Amino acid sequence: MIKPDAVANGHIGSILNDIIAGGFKIVALKYIKLTPESAGNFYAVHKERPFYADLVKFMTSGPIVAAILEKENAVEDFRKLIGATDPKKADEGTIRNKYAESIEANAVHGSDSDENAEIEGNFYFSQFERF
Ligand code: CMP
């Protein structure tokens, strides 16, 4: 996902460019606004965390871009491309280093395992929306 901060700050094009330049194929893509219920479901694993309510509020504050990306070793390589969750700790040149504002408004989300990539891809896209 490209999160509401990066969308509002005009970074959709630059982030998609970095993703494509990083060797990822875009399999599915959409521009949508989450509802509190859908954002809550997406981040349900974080339900007990102190930042959960604020995260749901932030993720519904504006439109986002959702995508399914394909590449050999995609999960690990995408996490390298985006950098650490906290942009202050993200390596120079990573997407979060370049475009994120804070640990919450951190520009992008990437799945943390192949299993979660499957679940999160299914959350946004039907079989007719993948190419
Ligand atoms: P993301 O990769 O989307 O997965 C969960 C999100 O929770 C994470 O990026 C951050 O935006 C957010 N997050 C994680 N830790 C914190 C924290 N300590 N404070 C606020 N938000 C956090």
UniProtKB/TrEMBL annotation:
**Which Pfam families does the record match to this protein?**
NDK
Q: Which GO molecular function terms does the record list? A: ATP binding; nucleoside diphosphate kinase activity
* Residues bound to ATP: K3, F51, R79, T85, R96, N106
Can you give the residue ranges of the Nucleoside diphosphate kinase-like domain?
A: 1-129
The active site is formed by H109 (pros-phosphohistidine intermediate)
One GO biological process this protein is involved in is: GTP biosynthetic process
- Keyword line: ATP-binding, Kinase, Nucleotide-binding, Phosphoprotein, Transferase
Stored CDD domains: NDPk_I
Supply the InterPro entries for this chain: NDK-like_dom, NDK-like_dom_sf, Nucleoside_diP_kinase
Family statement:
Belongs to the NDK family.
Q: What NCBIfam families does the record tag this protein with?
A: PRK00668.1, PRK14545.1
- Name of the molecule in the record: Nucleoside-diphosphate kinase
- Give the source species: Sphingobacterium deserti
